[in-house]
Amino acid sequence: MNRSNICELCSSEEDLSLLEVSPSDASQEQSVYVCSTCRGQIDSGELDETHFNCLNDSMWSEVPAVAVLSYRLLHALGRQDLVDMMYMEEDVKAWADAGLEQEEKLVYKDANGVLLSAGDTVVITKDLDVKGTGFTAKRGTAVRNIGLVHGDAEHIEGRVNGVKIHILTKFLKKS
Fold this sequence. Notes:
The protein is α+β, with helices and mostly antiparallel strands. It has helices spanning 36-44, 55-58, 64-76, 80-85, 90-98, 101-104; strands at 17-20, 31-34, 122-124, 128-130, 135-137, 142-143, 147-148, 155-160, 163-168, 172-174. The protein has six helices and ten strands, in the order ββααααααββββββββ.
């Protein structure tokens, strides 16, 4: 199959370009064809979880660069459940993890100084007004399977009342 016909993440055929998956030797084997939508979100770091539901398929790609990029995006989205299902050869897994080192240097801690990780469950310690939703996240509400906000150790992502929100870590306690 000619890899350059479709986005290797979402299968779009529109506005394709080659994205190098670092660290790499700049070869085509260490690059992925992506559409402008995927590339824009990857470059900005603002990932739309709905758009990247496509990773449910691309994570199984036999092309190492596609698997590595899918792994990193799932990690950034806080989808540890899918990351845990992935299987990669040792050298490919090492490549995938090499791109996560910078993100993992950030230390996420709750109000008590306890380390937080993607997939943890936390409890809200104070009633919080959720901007733009019209509801208050009540004290004692459990937020399961949290995601770590890329590049910001003071925020996590989680779902409250079915809405994905960002919450300051200083208002959370790991459970």
